[in-house]
Amino acid sequence: MLESIEKTTAYIKSRIGDFEPEVGIILGTGLGGLVREIEVEKQLMYSNIPDFPISTLEFHSGKLIFGMLAGKKVVAMQGRLHYYEGYSMQQITFPVRVLKMLGIKTLFVSNASGSLNPDFKKGDLMIIEDHINLQPHNPLIGRNEEALGPRFPDMSEPYKRVLTAKALEIAKANNIICHKGVYVAVTGPNLETKAEYKYLRIIGGDAVGMSTVPEVIVANHMGLPVFAISVLTDEGFGEVLTPVSVEEILAVAAEAEPKMTMILKELIAGF
């Protein structure tokens, strides 16, 4: 794996010259609009990058975007990979390892998720302060590459508390409804049943989604501080569940995205 990471990193560096990103951003479902705020210097299609997995979802464009955002050099993944697409956990998290090798010092992650907490409504934002991993595989299983990280990485602070606190301050100052909570990662691609939503809430979840945790595990393995934020696009509570379509999820994400973008921009500018 290390050889593949180094080959991919070398290829990207050959295309971006002396541009060295200090911030990595992973944009979730329906949340690719942050790219409009980036002063783009270079774009690379995933399909043109050696060994780089390609998103199979029509609403994930599959580009690496290099440029300036809030005075910082950034690289944004416009389109992420999911376990339900058939990729291994190592493939899903391969881009995070490459971003680290490119020089990023902090990873910012966004996603669309379903609310489990009756106090967290559709369209609200939730900063992830911890997670519960219910996905059936772990990206660190297999032979450990000591050059990438330790065999048994600590996960006592998977999401950087200082960034969480600062983001909540930014949200409050801009009158944005923003909670903090626990994210539960499941495989998907189906949404949850009523009984499953109830179970996920009982075990401590505030939101549920199908991504993020593998990338966060690998980021921690490589010593990368992480900030993650969810747009809550649907509600998994109440006596009767309302059927949800992908189109509705994308619509809610698009409406909430400017609020998320504001928080991310100010957070990146100030750290």
TrEMBL record:
Belongs to the PNP/MTAP phosphorylase family. The purine nucleoside phosphorylases catalyze the phosphorolytic breakdown of the N-glycosidic bond in the beta-(deoxy)ribonucleoside molecules, with the formation of the corresponding free purine bases and pentose-1-phosphate. One of its GO terms (molecular function) is purine-nucleoside phosphorylase activity. PANTHER family: METHYLTHIOADENOSINE/PURINE NUCLEOSIDE PHOSPHORYLASE (PTHR11904), PURINE NUCLEOSIDE PHOSPHORYLASE-RELATED (PTHR11904:SF9). Its EC number is 2.4.2.1. Homotrimer. It comes from Mucilaginibacter frigoritolerans. The keyword Nuclease does not apply. CDD domains: PNP-EcPNPII_like. It comes from the Bacteria. Gene3D superfamilies: Nucleoside phosphorylase domain. Residues 23-269 form the Nucleoside phosphorylase domain. One of its GO terms (biological process) is nucleoside metabolic process. Pathway: Purine metabolism; purine nucleoside salvage. InterPro entries: Nucleoside_phosphorylase_d, Nucleoside_phosphorylase_sf, Pur_Nuc_Pase_Ino/Guo-sp, Purine_phosphorylase, Purine_phosphorylase-2_CS. One of its GO terms (cellular component) is cytoplasm. This is Purine nucleoside phosphorylase. Keywords: Glycosyltransferase, Phosphoprotein, Transferase.
